[in-house]
C-alpha cells in the first residue's frame, strides 16, 4: 500500500469522485462515525493477527470494542461515533466523537470525505466520515464508552476471504462480515469498512447499503 501523503491524496481523490447515496432518513435517528486512517503503531493485539514490532507506519483503521456496561450493543466492534447533535454536520460529529471516545483531537482539515450512509435495523442512518490521523500516538479509551482501542492494519481487510456473506432467514440479502484475525466484525461496521476497502483502497465502485446485519444488532 502507498503511505503518507500519497495515500492521503489517493483516498481524498476517490472520495471526491464518489457519487454518494442519499437515502430517505425521515423518522430515523442521525449518527456519524469516523473511519480513521492512522499509522499501525505497535499492532492490534488480536488473536490470529500479526502484531507490528516497534512503531509501524503502515496504514491502519482505528476501531474500538464497546464497553460492556453500555445499554446498547455492549462489547461489539465499533467505529468511534454517535448521534448527530442539533446544528452539527456529520464531519463535526465524527471529530467530536473521536475525541470523546479515544482522546484523539483532529482539525477539520483531517476530514477526507464521506462514504454512503448506512440505514440500520435499529433505526439509525449512519454517515461514515473518512478521517486522516497520521501517527495518532496518544490514544486513550473513555471507560464509559470504550473497553479497548485497536489499530487494525488495512492489509487485514484486503484478505482473500473477505467479505464473509451469510444468508439470513427471511431476507433476500446476506449478512456481511469482515474477518479480522481469528474473529470477525459484523455489519453495519463491517459494511462501512468493506466499502472503504473497495472504494478508497482498491478503487472499485461498490455499494453496501443493501447488506443485512445479524439479528443481535437489530436492537
UniProtKB/TrEMBL annotation:
Keywords: Hydrolase, Magnesium, Manganese, Metal-binding
CDD domains: NUDIX_CoAse_Nudt7
Entry keyword annotation includes Hydrolase: yes
Cofactor list: Mn(2+); Mg(2+)
Recorded GO MF terms: coenzyme A diphosphatase activity; metal ion binding
Keyword Cytoplasm among record annotations: no
InterPro entries (alphabetical): CoAse (IPR045121), Nudix_hydrolase (IPR020476), NUDIX_hydrolase-like_dom_sf (IPR015797), NUDIX_hydrolase_CS (IPR020084), NUDIX_hydrolase_dom (IPR000086)
Taxonomy, superkingdom: Bacteria
Positions of the Nudix hydrolase domain: 28-180
Family per record: Belongs to the Nudix hydrolase family.
Protein name: Coenzyme A pyrophosphatase
Organism: Pseudaquabacterium pictum
Organism phylogeny: Bacteria, Pseudomonadati, Pseudomonadota, Betaproteobacteria, Burkholderiales
Amino acid at each position: 500500500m502507498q503511505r503518507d501523503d500519497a495515500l492521503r491524496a489517493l483516498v481524498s481523490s476517490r472520495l471526491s469522485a464518489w457519487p454518494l447515496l442519499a437515502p430517505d432518513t425521515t423518522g430515523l435517528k442521525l449518527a456519524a462515525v469516523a473511519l480513521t486512517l492512522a499509522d499501525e503503531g505497535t499492532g492490534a493485539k488480536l488473536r490470529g493477527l500479526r502484531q507490528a514490532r516497534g512503531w509501524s507506519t503502515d496504514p491502519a483503521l482505528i476501531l474500538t470494542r464497546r464497553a460492556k456496561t453500555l445499554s446498547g450493543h455492549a462489547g461489539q466492534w465499533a467505529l468511534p461515533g454517535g448521534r448527530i447533535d442539533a446544528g452539527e454536520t456529520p464531519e463535526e460529529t465524527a471529530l467530536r466523537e473521536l475525541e470523546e471516545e479515544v482522546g484523539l483531537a483532529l482539525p477539520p482539515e483531517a476530514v477526507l470525505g464521506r462514504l454512503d450512509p448506512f440505514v440500520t435495523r435499529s433505526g439509525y442512518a449512519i454517515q461514515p466520515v473518512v478521517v486522516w490521523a497520521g501517527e495518532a500516538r496518544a490514544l486513550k479509551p473513555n471507560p464509559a464508552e470504550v473497553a479497548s482501542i485497536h489499530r487494525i492494519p488495512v492489509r487485514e481487510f484486503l484478505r482473500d476471504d473477505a467479505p464473509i456473506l451469510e444468508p439470513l432467514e427471511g431476507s433476500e440479502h446476506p449478512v456481511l462480515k469482515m474477518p479480522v484475525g481469528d474473529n470477525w466484525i459484523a455489519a453495519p461496521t463491517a459494511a462501512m469498512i468493506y466499502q472503504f476497502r473497495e472504494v478508497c483502497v482498491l478503487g472499485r465502485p461498490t455499494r453496501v447499503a443493501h447488506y443485512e446485519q445479524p439479528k443481535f444488532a437489530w436492537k
